[in-house]
Amino acid sequence: MAWIQRHLQLKPRPRGFHLVTSEILQAIPEISEIRVGLCHLFLQHTSASLSINENADSDVPLDLENSLSSIAPESFPYRHTCEGPDDMSAHVKSSLLGCTCTIPIEAGRLCLGTWQGIYLCEHRNRGGGRRLVATLWGE
Length: 139
Hints:
The chain is an alpha+beta fold. 22% of the residues lie in helices and 42% in strands. The protein has a single domain, classed as YjbQ-like (Jelly Rolls, Sandwich), CATH 2.60.120. The chain has helices at residues 21-27, 59-71, 87-97; strands spanning 2-10, 14-19, 36-43, 48-54, 100-106, 109-110, 116-126, 130-138. A 5-stranded antiparallel beta sheet has the order 1-8-3-5-6, covered by helices on one side. A 3-stranded antiparallel beta sheet has the order 2-7-4. It starts with a strand and ends with a strand. 27% of the residues are buried. The mean pLDDT is 97.
């Protein structure tokens, strides 16, 4: 069994759902050497999140953003407002989706379904670069 850990810096993105599967795979090529194992992803932020969802239809990320924005709108009377109107709604969205994903590895590949991809869910208008810790375990 082997443990591998990489710290990734994802480029800044605007608010929305952004596929980052290929960016993650490029940063951790050791996945190809693992016969069976796990890839654990941890986003080190409280105003963004990670999600696995459909990667084929470009309407999906737009609908996801619109849905979450209706659940946690900026216009809600939040008390925590010192970092701008998009901050607290971003924390709510991050709490709903979470900051981790764990994906099985089989025969050197992530066991994502045919239409699945890993999304960085940026909940701030200008969140900046996001830090991600990828931990692999397997044989």
